[in-house]
Amino acid sequence: MIIDMNLELDDARVARCRHCGTQVGTADDPFSRARRAERPSSDAGSGVHADPAIFSDRDVVLRQRFCPGCLTLLSTEIVPRDEEEVRGWRM
Amino acid sequence: MALIPVAGSERFAQDGQPIDTAQKFGDLTLHTVGDDVVDGVDPLTYEVVRHRLVAITNEMGDTIKRMSGSVVVTDCNDFGAGIMDEGGETIQVGLYNTQLGASLDMAARWTLENRSSEPGIHEGDQFLCNDPWVGGGLHQNDVTVLAPVFFDGELFCWTGAVAHQVDLGGVSPGSWSVEGRDVFWESLPIPPIPIVERGRLRVDVEDMYLRRSRVPRLIGLDLRAKIGANNVAKERILELVEKYGPGTVKAVMKRMMKDAETRLRDKLRSLPDGEWSAVAHQDGGRAGDREIHRIRLTMRKADDRLIFDFTGTDQQVEGIINCTFAGLRGGILPIVLTMLCPDIPWAPGGIYRCLEIVSEPGTINNCTFPAGIGKASVSSAWATQNAASETIASMLHTDPVLAGSAMSVCCGTWDLALLAGVDQRGGGFVTMLCDSMAGGLGAKVDGDGVDSGGVNCIPMGRIADVEINEFSFPMLYLWRREEVDSGGPGEYRGGVGASSCFVPHDSPIGGVHLVVSATGKAIPQASGLSGGYPAATQWDVLMRGTDVLEQFAAGRIPQSFEAIGGADELMPVHHETDMSDRDVYFTHWQGGGGVGDPLRRSPERVAADVSDGTVSAASAGTIYGVVLDGSGNADLPATDARRTELRRERAGLAS
Q1: I need a surface site. Which of A48, B137, B160, B375 has the fewest CB within 10 A?
Q2: Is B3 in CB contact (< 8 Å) with chain A?
Q3: pLDDT at position B5
C-alpha cells in the first residue's frame, strides 16, 4: 500500500522506502529506523526571515527524518526543540 | 489576571449536535417530511430543485456584495451564506468564506431552543448574533443574521448571512485588541436577538448594536446587506415552494444532506483505516507573550467515519488567539469540503454526520467564556485548519486517485495589517488590509502549489485592486508582488506568498494607526508533506522616517528596503503603533508548504523557478542542490555531485 511519495507498506506491514526498498519502520512505528537530524531553523533557507529568538524564548529547530538507505528526505518540520515528535501515521 | 469562569455562561456553549425536532419549541410548528417523501423524489426534480437552492445561496452572496460598502466584503469576499432546514441542519453553504458556514447550524439551533418561547420566533423575524460560543461566526467581527422562513404558518427552514465587520468596538481599532487578556477587552458578544421583528427593523436594537462601532454607518450598511440577503433567499425559497410544493422542496433539502453523507461515507470506506497526526503552532497569544502555543491533532479513519481527536492541545491562554468550538469546526469544515468533497454536495448537515470531534473544553481551540477570541478566526481556527489539512492530505496520499485532491498546508495564517484613522475625505475609517488573501496554495503530489493562489477556507476569496485600496483609504503602495523563496521547497514547490509595501498618504492628520497581528514569525505555519519544507515565515517591517516623499517628488518609487531607507523596525507578532506619512510598512504573508524531497525536483524546473523569481539562486544551491551555469541553466553533472554531497550533509553524515 502506498503511504506517501516516499513510503509504502508491504504485506508484512513493513514500511519501506519507495525509492530504494530499505525498511524505514513498521505500520505501528513507521519511522523507527529512519535517520534523524536536527539543525538550526535558519538551515531551512532564506524563507526563515528572522531569528526565532527575537519572538520566543524557546529554541526552535529544523527537524528532519531520512531513509536510512538512500537518504531521501521523509519528513521536515520546524518546531520547538523541547517538543516531542508528533507528526506521523499508523495503519 | 487569570481567566475567571463566569457563572451561567455554560448555557451559551454548544456541542454541535443536531437537536430532536419532535420536541416543543414554544408555539412553533416545524415543517417536516417523512423518509418516504425524501426517498420518493424523482431524480430530475431533485437535481432541478437542488441546483435552485445552490443558486439561491449564491444569490445571497451577490446581494451582500451589492449592498455592502466594505472593501473586505465587496472586493475580498470575506462573508458567507447558507440555508438550514427547520431544525437548523445546514443544507447548503456558498463558495465564499466556508469557515463562516461551518457553524450556522449551531446558531440556528440555539435560537430555536432559546428564543422560541420568549420573545418568540415569528414570520418576518431576523436574529442578529455575534457570539461565537453560540455559533454563526468565529470571532465577534463575524456578525450573523439568521432568518426563519415560514410557509403556511409552519417554520419551514432558516437562512443565514454572515460577514466580517471591520470594527465593533473594543480596545483597539478593528476590534483586534492585541494586548487583550480576555473577552472583556474585546467587542462583547451578542447572543441571538431579534433585529427584525415581523418584517420591521428594530431601530432600538440597531442603535445598541451600532453604538459600539467606530464606523457605525459602514456596519449599518453591512447589516442591511445581510438582512437583504435573507429577504432575497426567503422570496426565492417561497417561490420554489409555491412551484413544487413544500413537501418536495423539503424532501430535496433532506436528500441533499443524505446524499452528501452517503457519498462521503462511500469515499471514506474506500480509503484504508489508519491514523495521522499533525501539530500546529502559534507564536504569541497577545502582545508581549513569547510562548509558542500548540494544537495537536490525531485524525483516525475508521470504516466510514473520521474522528478528529485534539487531545494534547494546549490550554486556553490569556490572549486573543483562542477559538470556541465554532472556530474548531470552522477549522475542519473548509478542508473537508475542498479536499474530501470537491465532487460531493456542500451540505454540511450531512457531512458532519460522518465526523466526530474529540476536544476538551478549555483548550485553545475549544475555549470557554471569558477567554479572549478576538483573533479566533485567523488564529486557533486557522491553525486547526492547518492541522486538519495535513492529516486529511496525508490520508488521501494513500489513494492514487484521491491523492490528486490533496494539497499541503496553504498560507499558514492571515497576516493582519489593520489601518485606522481619518481618510482623505475627512471621515473616520477602519479597515483590515486583505492583501494576504493572496496566500500561496500548498503543493500537490503531482504539481506545484498555485503562486499567490489564495486561502483554502475562502474558495472565492480575492484581493482588492491596489487602486481600490488607494481610493478607499489614505495610503499609497510602493509595491504588491510575489516574493522569492516564500513557497515551501519540495519535489513539488509550495505556491509563493507575496508582500505589500505602502505609506500613509493624504490623511488630514498626517498618518494612520496600525494594528499588526500575525503569528508564524518564529515557526512557519504552512507545513510540507512527504519531506517537503514549510513555507516561509511571516515577516513584517516598519521603516521609520524615510525620504519616500522626496523620492516620489523626483518621480521614483523605491522598490527595495535599501532604496526606501529609514530605520527598520522588525514587527513583533502582535503590535499597535502610529505611522506618519514618512513611515513605510512592509507586510509579507506566507506561501504554501512543499511536497516531497527538494533534491528530487527536476533541475530544469529549479532553473526555471530561479528565472521566474520564485526561487533564489542561493536556495537553488543550498536547498535544491542545483548548480546553475552562467546562462542560468542547470549544470546536470555538477548538480548530481552537489546533490550527493547535500544528501549526506543534511542527514548529519560526513560528506
Answers
A1: A48
A2: no
A3: 87
Q: Do A91 and B296 touch (CB under 8 A)?
A: no
- Whole-angstrom Cα distance, residue B56 to residue B45? 16
- Considering only CB atoms, B651 lies closest to which of A35, A44, A50, namely A35
Instruction: Give the residue-averaged pLDDT of B513-523.
Output: 97
Confidence of residue B196 (pLDDT cuts 50, 70, 90): very high
Grid cell, residue B552, equals: 516620489
pLDDT bin (cut points 50, 70, 90) of residue B3 is: confident
Is A40 within the bounds of a domain? Answer: yes
Q: Give the mutation candidate from A48, A54, A57 for the B interface (greatest B CB count, under 10 A).
A: A48
- Cβ distance of B276 and A89 shorter than 8 Å: yes
Q: Confirm whether A61 is domain-assigned.
A: yes
| Residue A2 included in any domain | no
Q: Is residue A89 assigned to a domain? A: no
What residues of A are in contact with residue B596 (Cβ under 8 Å)? 5-6
Confidence band of B655 (pLDDT split at 50, 70, 90): low
| pLDDT above 70: residue B363 | yes
ipTM here: 0.98
Strands B416-422 and B539-544: unpaired
Decide if A56 and B284 are in contact by the 8 Å CB cutoff. yes
Q: Per residue in B53-108, pLDDT tens? A: 999 999 999 999 999 999 999 999 999 999 999 999 999 998 899 999 999 999 99
CB-nearest partner of B599 from A58, A73, A83 = A73
Average pLDDT value for residue range B510-517: 96
Provide the residue count of chain A.
91
Average pLDDT over residues B566-588: 97
Q: What is the pLDDT of residues B15-52, one digit of tens each?
A: 999 999 999 999 999 999 999 999 999 999 999 999 99
Q: How far is A44 from chain B (nearest CA, A)?
A: 8
| Distances in whole angstroms, Cα of residue B39 to Cα of each of B35, B36, B80, B345 | 6, 5, 30, 17
Using CA atoms, how far apart are residues B486 and B478, in angstroms rounded to an integer?
20
Q: Are B526 and B408 in contact (CB under 8 A)?
A: yes
Q: Which residues of A touch B445 (CB under 8 A)?
A: 5
| Under 8 Å between Cβ of B522 and B565 | no
Q: How far apart are CA B96 and CA B78, in angstroms?
A: 7
C-alpha–C-alpha distance, residues B146 and B111, integer Å:
9
Rounded to a whole number, what is the distance in Å from the CA of B486 to chain A's nearest CA?
6
Buried b (16+ CB within 10 A) or exposed e, B196-222: bbeeeebeebbeebbebbbbbebbbeb
Tell me which residue in A48, A83, A89 faces B537 most closely, judged by beta carbons. A48
CB spacing of B279 vs A79 below 8 angstroms: yes
Total domain count, chain A: 1
Domain ranges of chain B: 28-171+185-257, 407-596, 601-650
Counting Cα atoms < 13 Å in the Cβ hemisphere of B324 gives: 33
Q: Is A47–B486 a contact, with Cβ atoms under 8 angstroms apart?
A: yes
- B1 has pLDDT over 70: no
Tell the residue number behind the cell numbers 426534480, with chain if given: B45
Q: Is B651 on the interface with A (CB under 8 A)?
A: yes
Closest C-alpha to B532, from B485, B492, B589? B492
Contacts of A78 in chain B (CB under 8 A): 523-524, 534
Residues of B in contact with A41 (CB under 8 A): 523
Quickly tell me which residue has 525620504 as its cell. B547
Instruction: Quote the minimal CA–CA distance from A58 to chain B in Å.
Output: 7
Q: In this complex, how many residue pairs, one in chain A and one in chain B, have their CB atoms less than 8 Å apart?
A: 165
The neighbour count for residue B434, using CB atoms within 10 Å, is 24
Tell me the residue range of the domain where A20 lies.
7-80
Contacts of B136 (CB under 8 A, 6+ apart): B100, B103, B104, B106, B107, B129, B130, B142, B143, B144, B146, B160, B162, B326
